[in-house]
Write a structure and sequence with these properties.
34% strand; alpha+beta; Rossmann fold; six-stranded mixed sheet; Elongation Factor Tu (Ef-tu), domain 3; six-stranded antiparallel barrel; 23 strands; 3 domains
Length: 441
Amino acid sequence: MSDNSLREQFNIVVVGHVDHGKSTVIGRLLADTGSLPDGKLEQVQRECARTSKPFEYAFLLDALKAEQAQGITIDTARSSFKSERRDYIIIDAPGHIEFLKNMITGAARAEAALLIIDAKEGVRENSRRHGTLLSLLGIRQVVVGVKKIDLADYSQSVFETIQKEYTAFLAQVGLHPQAFLPLAAFHGENLIVSSQRMPWFHQEPLLAQMDRFVKEVRPDAQDLRLPVQDVYKFTEAGDDRRIVAGRIEAGTLHVNDEVVFYPSHKKARVKTFEEFNVQPPQSYGPGKSVGFTLDPEIYVQQGELMVRSGQKPPHTGTRLRGNVFWMGRKPMIVGKKYKLKLHTGEVPVWLEEIRSVLDASDLSSSKKNQIDQHEVGECVLETFKPVAFDLSSDLAPTGRFVLVDDYEIAGGGIILEDLGKEQKLLERHLENRERQWDRSQ
């Protein structure tokens, strides 16, 4: 096997209705791929025997989480499973609200999803919501696992009924699963190896299907995007450095690069990289948090978006169209002011218009002046000052946002369109109309 540092990593989120068995799937994958810490499986089995509990593979995840809660360091490989092709990083999604919060805020960056459905319970409301959320967040690579098929007597008709119903629903939100798989995770059937109890099913098992997922375009091949997190000014005598800090979301940054900050359009050159007690490299790539000085030492603010000069600039403006998934206890109302969190920036925003509202569980659409909890609204938002952003379809980390209402995260969404040009056209039209009106007087 190749050096671990050279192995491809792939981020996958496993989602499903509560008690539909996704923890069992993850636990069994960890065990069957040899991805658990040494002795962990035996330790959990012994504990189950001591307490007279039947062993469950889901307990493996509970044990790992307990270690994390106690502050015990867990090697990356222990929170992932591996195939011959690559390492899979598991993104925990305990529920659709937590999943959305993590995805929108950038705490989790899933490239594909495994959707779990219970064969006995079938497609539930949360199953539909999860499908809608994956579509909203731009996750297009999906495999659906119909879990606990053993409790449905390995029934082909049960599997095909669920497949037909869920395929039709997902198609309405623009998702077309790569595969539907009947799973008996506790027994390890159709996870790593095919099941002998379902001769009617002829597709590859789960891990082989996941190896067919396509890796996203390498972020270092994209244009530079670095949201400014903070600016540090030292007070020590003789140290007049102003250090700009942020995380590179895409592209690469080098010493002497000419950079532009948006929306201020200020320009400077990267003078030095700064690190504590070590000699910094001459360049950094995506995912790296960096501190650097500029020449000249221009004043920039948290929330500005830094781009390399000559590369495609971000959008800047005050009006944007987006899809919002609302989680607030109080509805989102036209004309009300909220706080918009966009990458590292925060700015007041008001809901100018709701163009349509979609119930995430049944996809019924309506036209109204508020978005209720668990609904998705296509909205026009107007910020109180210009912001810099990308469309979500171009670059997710700088095209996603969070909405705060009364100090609580109440919604999240993706940017679909920059309406700045539309606003300028409207202003020009009104100016022309005013001129024509003046002439007619």
